[in-house]
Amino acid sequence: MISNGEVILRLVLSALAGGIVGMEREANHSSAGLRTHILVTLGSTLIMLISMYGFQGLGANNNGGEPARLAAQVVSGIGFLGAGTILRTGNNIRGLTTAASIWVCGGIGLAIGNGYYIGGIATTIIVLFTLRGLVFIQNKLSKGPNKLLIVHCKERAGLIGDIGHILGKNNIIINEIKVNSEDNIVENGDYLIEIRFTVKLPSKFLSRSFFDEILSVNGVENAIWEGDLEKAF
């Protein structure tokens, strides 16, 4: 049986490891953030500690049974928790990365609870690099990061096609299109709608000339990149 200090050390260390991963997910506004990842890692560590030391003196020959049997249930249990973070809207699926981070946090907790510190700490560092560092590499390989173009316009037939034509002419790849009706009637009975284009920009891109083309489309009122303070009129 390990000392009380060792038990506390493993629990605190697992909470720190889960918190590091959780803070990255929190910064990305994921459905599971700091608290969720801490609780998953901490709970996994506690279950491993219970499975290893909580049944000593019991079982056949007082050997405490099989420590791996209880800990193995963490893997399947976290699978259900991770599934709750996955959202599907039409053909779009979100939350897979967060589900994977919850799953791997369970593994980190089991490793630390077992006293396998090097494995748990090294995995935490690799996970953080994967979530943060590889985004830069991924954007470079795909010739630019994803950006969200928000266009406010009067509803009419063929509008999305006209805007899409301009995007294609500027070598901009469209990943997703969402149309939100603002239920506002403007002049001549036209409805004002908001179209959100999730796009990937080419390596060489001229923003000013692009917005001039977008604003020249019949019905477009204004356009803006998400996060920009100045609208393009």
Automatic annotation (TrEMBL):
The keyword Zinc appears for this protein: no
Keywords from the named record: Cell membrane, Membrane, Transmembrane, Transmembrane helix
Keyword Transmembrane helix tagged: yes
Transmembrane residue ranges: 36-55, 67-86, 93-112
UniProt-annotated location(s): Cell membrane
Superkingdom as given in the UniProt entry: Bacteria
GO terms under cellular component: plasma membrane
Residue span(s) of domain MgtC/SapB/SrpB/YhiD N-terminal: 11-138
Membrane disposition: Multi-pass membrane protein
Family under the similarity heading: Belongs to the MgtC/SapB family.
Protein name: Putative Mg2+ transporter-C (MgtC) family protein
Provenance organism: Proteiniborus ethanoligenes
